[in-house]
């Protein structure tokens, strides 16, 4: 691990970013060039003290998970991410095995969406980042760990996951989940994480095994769906998908036409925030 180079690189990339580049308000006159250390730490979901020690050449070797968080917070390109890993003493991750690194182009779009639900997923259905509106609609995905990070896995193993869709639409959603996973399986191969996810689901879900045997393959480009909120009821939304060039990540944006009931419900959703997810309502799905 090259502590001096790592510290210099982190400081340089932090100072090159402006608050508006990462979806933060510019605020009053700032003495710090670029982002503050505490802002980077918050974006990377780590303590300010930990990040500060990295910039001061006295921190421990960051784990690959920490590096992935830093790469996302600093909006690094793939080449910059690989460089970060190497100076921190790790091998650069292969593109197919680095699902936590969010494409900077998608992040720039997400940063500008604060009045409608939007989230970035990888091809295994793992939420990499979501805005506050998406968290209010779906719940805070950062709480999930292990295989439960995948929405496909949760769909077939946790009945509570289906509550966000009307019962009449759940069969279609099951087919869509499997068809999306088969596309990822075809890209990554049977020995990949996608292959292991398929094998696990075949063991625990007869429904999944039956749908997998149909060999349906699809990646959604747009969709019209109805989602269910426990306080607001059904919300009809248009879902637009923007893929990266390698099709490993997708930005989903959910909108409603102006002056419609759904548009008003989205406005109310912004006020309600995460209140629906307090307590242990869905704690059994995490882990």
Could you please describe the fold and organization of this structure?
This protein has 287 residues and is α+β, with helices and mostly antiparallel strands. The chain folds into two domains: 3-93, lambda repressor-like DNA-binding domains (434 Repressor (Amino-terminal Domain), Orthogonal Bundle), CATH 1.10.260; 104-285, Beta-Lactamase (2-Layer Sandwich), CATH 3.30.450. Helices cover 42% and strands 12% of the residues. It is built from twelve helices and five strands. It has a five-stranded antiparallel β-sheet with strand order 2-1-5-4-3. Strand 3 (222-229) and strand 4 form a beta hairpin. The two termini are 32 Å apart. The model is unreliable at 277-287 (pLDDT under 50).
Computed structural class: alpha+beta
Please state the second-level CATH architecture of the largest domain: 2-Layer Sandwich
Which regions have little confidence, pLDDT < 50, spanning 5+ residues? 277-287
User: How does the major sheet shape up?
Assistant: 5 strands, antiparallel
Strand content: 5-15%
Mean pLDDT: 86
Q: Under CATH, the topology of the largest domain is which?
A: Beta-Lactamase
Order of helices and strands: HHHHHHEEHHHHHEEEH
Task: Determine the oligomeric state from the structure.
Answer: single chain
Q: What is the CATH C level class of the largest domain, in words?
A: Alpha Beta
Helix % is: 40-55%
First-last Cα distance: 32 Å
Q: From the alpha carbons, calculate the radius of gyration and give it in angstroms.
A: 20 Å
Largest sheet strand order: 2-1-5-4-3
Tally of individual domains: 2
Number of DSSP strand runs: 5
Give me the number of helical elements: 12
Query: So what's the overall shape?
Result: globular
């Amino acid at each position: 691990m090259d502590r001096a180079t790592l510290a210099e690189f982190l400081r340089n990339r932090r100072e090159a970013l402006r608050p508006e580049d990462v979806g933060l308000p510019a605020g009053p006159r700032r003495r710090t060039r670029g982002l503050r250390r505490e802002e980077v730490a918050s974006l990377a979901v780590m303590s300010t003290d930990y990040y500060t020690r990295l910039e001061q050449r006295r921190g421990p070797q960051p784990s690959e998970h920490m590096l992935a968080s830093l790469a996302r917070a600093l909006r690094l390109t793939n080449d910059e991410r690989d460089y970060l890993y190497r100076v921190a003493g790790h091998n650069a991750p292969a593109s197919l095995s680095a699902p936590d690194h969010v494409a900077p182009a998608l992040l720039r779009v997400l940063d500008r969406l604060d009045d409608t639900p939007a989230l970035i997923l990888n091809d295994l259905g793992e939420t990499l980042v979501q805005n506050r509106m998406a968290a209010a609609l779906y719940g805070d995905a950062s709480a999930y760990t292990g295989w439960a990070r995948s929405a496909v896995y949760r769909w077939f193993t946790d009945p509570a996951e289906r509550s966000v869709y009307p019962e009449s639409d759940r069969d279609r959603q099951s087919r869509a989940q499997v068809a999306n996973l088969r596309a990822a399986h075809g890209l990554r191969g049977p020995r990949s994480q996608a292959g292991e996810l398929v094998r696990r689901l075949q063991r625990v879900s007869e429904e999944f095994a039956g749908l997998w045997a149909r060999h349906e393959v699809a990646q959604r480009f747009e969709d019209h769906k109805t989602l269910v909120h426990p306080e607001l009821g059904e919300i009809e939304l248009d879902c637009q998908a923007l893929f990266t060039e390698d099709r490993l990540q997708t930005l989903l944006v959910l909108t409603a036409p102006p002056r419609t009931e759904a548009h008003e419900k989205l406005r109310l959703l912004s006020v309600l925030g995460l209140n629906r997810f307090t307590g242990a309502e869905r704690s059994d799905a995490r882990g």
